[in-house]
Amino acid sequence: MSETAAERSDGTALLTQLLRFGVVGGVGFVVDVAVFNLLRAHEPFGWAWWPVAAKAISTLLAIAVNWIGNRSWTFREHRRGDTGREAAEFLVASLIGGGVSLLCLMFSRDVLGLTSALDDNISANVVGLALGSAVRFCAYRWWVFGERGSSGEDTGTLMPTSDPVARSEEMLADPPASSAMRATMARPSPPPA
């Protein structure tokens, strides 16, 4: 495959992942916003920090929905065999992204003094969501679902699929050895002296 075709293929794969990430994120967003507003409307203690607690709860529920969607659809070709570690890394990356939303909410309330329901939603679910989503996508693509070397360290690229049919299609599309290399490997070895 030529360099230009490979770049196009990589660009198409990235665009597909971004679109799928957006759809999964949209479902997670609906869960997050619905739960956040439901909890915010039913403040149990008269506690000034209840909106922040409500956002933390809604974020955790959205993380669960997003892990299922991203693992089974967005990055399905790149999921790893070590599901427990993958889930833990996904949780860490998601919490960091969710932390961005919480920081935006706290900044809006404590620094800017904006405390209405609309203010809370704009700071947490618009600004915070946009910034947190960028952080999450990068972490998912290059860390959580990224390729691992033999030592278990990240290599910065995506792991090939473990699905044998998809794997054979990948090899047909981009054979691992060039024809010159195959010809060299096909030559018989010289007899021992």
Roughly how many Å apart are the termini? 40 Å
The rounded Rg comes to 23 Å
Task: Tell me, briefly, the overall form.
Answer: elongated
DSSP strand (E) fraction?
Answer: under 5%
Structural features, described:
This protein is mainly α. The protein has one domain. 72% of the residues lie in helices and 4% in strands. The chain contains six helices and two strands; from the N terminus they run H-H-H-H-E-E-H-H. Strands 1-2 form a two-stranded antiparallel ribbon. Strand 1 and strand 2 form a beta hairpin. Helix 1 runs antiparallel to helix 4, helix 2 packs antiparallel against helix 3 and helix 3 runs antiparallel to helix 4. The protein is elongated. The chain starts with a helix and ends in a 7-residue tail after the last helix.
Annotate the secondary structure layout.
Blueprint: H1 3-41, H2 50-74, H3 83-111, H4 117-144, E1 146-148, E2 154-158, H5 164-173, H6 179-186
Antiparallel strand pairs: 1-2
